Amino acid sequence: MMRVIFLGPQGAGKGTISSRVSAKLKIPHISTGDLFRDAIAAQTPLGKEAKKSIDQGKLVPDLITNALIREHVEKKRCKKGFILDGYPRNISQAKSLDSFALPTQVILLDIPEQVSIERLAGRLQCKICKRVFNINAREDDKPQVIKQRLAAYRAETEPIVDYYKKQKKLHRIDATPTVEIILKKIFRVLC
Questions:
Q1: What is the structure's pLDDT at 150?
Q2: Is 28 a member of any domain?
Q3: pLDDT digits (tens, 9 = 90+) for 136-156
Q4: The domain containing residue 57 runs over which residues?
Q5: Is residue 39 within 8 Å of residue 144, measured between CB atoms?
Q6: How far apart are alpha carbons 6 and 186 in whole angstroms?
Q7: How many domains in the chain?
Q8: What is the H or E stretch that residue 5 is in?
Q9: CB count, 10 Å around CB of 135?
Q10: In a designed cystine with 88, which of 32, 94, 122, 185 is the match (CB 3.0 to 4.6 A)?
Q11: How buried is residue 165: exposed, middle or buried, by Cβ count under 10 Å (0-12/13-18/19+)?
């Protein structure tokens, strides 16, 4: 069973890479960003709470996020494994995940902050197919919000790197080259 986590700052390519790895390994790709966007679009109570945080450049509270992830990874389609993109984002979430679905591998997609800002400032996501294009449109990709999101990442997510390094599960991958080069490196780690 493969339970793979993709970590990295916003704009590192977690969604793109996770989708490609998911297709090759034939295990579900679970993106917290997609789960929250779907809940926001459906205007569920969870979606409304998530939207408040996201619009302010903050992370969605752990209690909501942990429950949402647990619900999805315990579904039958995840029996052979899964790929998590965007979760866990802090030590508390990592420990919560360990309690119900212990990860087997953690891939850190590493990029400099300036590359993250450049990528995000020019990103557009199709509302129907969720495919990402490079034109500025998403509300959470405005320069000021990007900087807030990166600050939140540094403060809350980077400590997870040490957490998984101590468990000998962490693999750091340079996410600045082409997707094909990144994928080759990842498949060497996973296969």
A1: 82
A2: yes
A3: 455 555 667 777 878 878 888
A4: 2-184
A5: no
A6: 10
A7: 1
A8: strand 2-7
A9: 10
A10: 94
A11: middle
